[in-house]
Amino acid sequence: MLSADHNHSRRGFLTLLGAGAAVAAGAPLLAACGSPSGTGASSSSAASAPGGLTNFAIQLSWVPDTEYAPLFLADSNGHYKSENVAVSFIPGGSDIGAIEGIVASGKADLGIATDITTVVAAAADGNPLVAIGAMYQSNLNVLMSDYRAPITKVADLKGKRMGGPQGIQTKFDAIFTLNGMTPDYKFIPTGYGPDALINGDCDVLAGFITDEVLAYKAAQGHMPGILSFTDAGLPAYTLPIFTTTQTLTAKRDALKGFLAATLKGFDEDVADPTAGPKLAVDNYGKNAGLSLDSEIAHNAAYLPLASSDATREHGYMWIDTAYLAGPIYRGMEASGLKTTDVEKVVDMSLLTELHGGS
């Protein structure tokens, strides 16, 4: 079963997502809290590293676990160095504040947020941020239900006890509204992990497909009923890679090299899905209390999410601006999040060049 700490990571971010624009608006102020300790550097702006390499300090949204496997592989196998880039990973956590503010204030050169919606909302509040790729194509959030009485349609949420952390009610309300329904549910505030669903405290529990779902299966021996946020009207790109507009302009070639190396890391992750988890457990996240079996199971859940129709046409990490401006923005607006011109917050020119102009 997943560790309590790992469950805490993802459930904590559900609260962040539910907080909406208020979080994004406070981002620059929250950055003053500084960088967490652990693997990586506490960073300044991108600088020249020894040997003529360009160093990028990368603020992660959580501990260095297997969700970042392609980056660990690219680093460990020398692909960043081959592109004249050096990377350092700053561990994230539930207490670091808004990752968008950390990058906007120059505390890190690149950020990998949990969800692209917070990056967009922060940019809409005037932060000079731009996404240059996204590691995963789907929203990891799901609504889980008992495997013996699975709820897989929004219409069946009516009147149900819906569990999650305080703040996620805006997402629940948006799901009803987007599907032409008046919000009709009883909110049950819950702790971390799948226990509230297993114990019958709620009929539906918000969780992550790569965390609570796996923990539920480990405990129950069955997959829960699953209604994804995407199918419910709240799609999103997960783990978007973003920087400031200033860094993009000043370090464009180095950022292109960073993405080129990361693409090789994706290929290696697919070729051997155990290698990245081993690096996370033994090296990059060695102080995070990770379990190899658990991390391998997590990677098996993450890998399918790296691909979509868009990536099959354009390559890994692609962000479809039409999809962002359409279904994702509709979900954001229904959730009370600010949006902005997609051309200001997404730049696919580096990936376009790397993928041969596709």
Short description:
The protein has 358 residues and is an alpha/beta fold. It is built from 18 helices and eleven strands. The strands form two sheets. Strands 1, 2, 3, 4, 5 and 11 form a six-stranded mixed β-sheet that branches. Strands 8-7-9-6-10 form a five-stranded mixed β-sheet.
Secondary structure topology:
Layout: H1 4-19, H2 21-25, H3 27-30, E1 47-48, E2 54-60, H4 69-76, H5 79-82, E3 85-90, H6 99-104, E4 110-112, H7 116-124, E5 129-136, E6 141-145, E7 160-164, H8 169-178, E8 185-189, H9 195-198, E9 204-208, H10 212-220, E10 225-228, E11 238-244, H11 245-250, H12 252-271, H13 275-284, H14 292-302, H15 309-314, H16 321-334, H17 342-345, H18 349-354
Parallel strand pairs: 2-3, 2-4, 7-8, 7-9
Antiparallel strand pairs: 1-2, 4-11, 5-11, 6-9, 6-10
Helix pairs in contact: 4-12, 4-13, 13-14
Annotation, overall tally of beta strands: 11
N-to-C span? 42 Å
Which structural category do the helix and sheet elements fall into?
A: alpha/beta
Helix content: 40-55%
Task: Tell me about the largest β-sheet.
Answer: 6 strands, mixed
The proportion of strand residues reads 15-25%
How many helices? 18
Order of helices and strands: HHHEEHHEHEHEEEHEHEHEEHHHHHHHH
Low-pLDDT segments: 1-48
From the spread of the alpha carbons, the general shape counts as globular
Average pLDDT over all residues: 88
Cα-atom radius of gyration: 19 Å
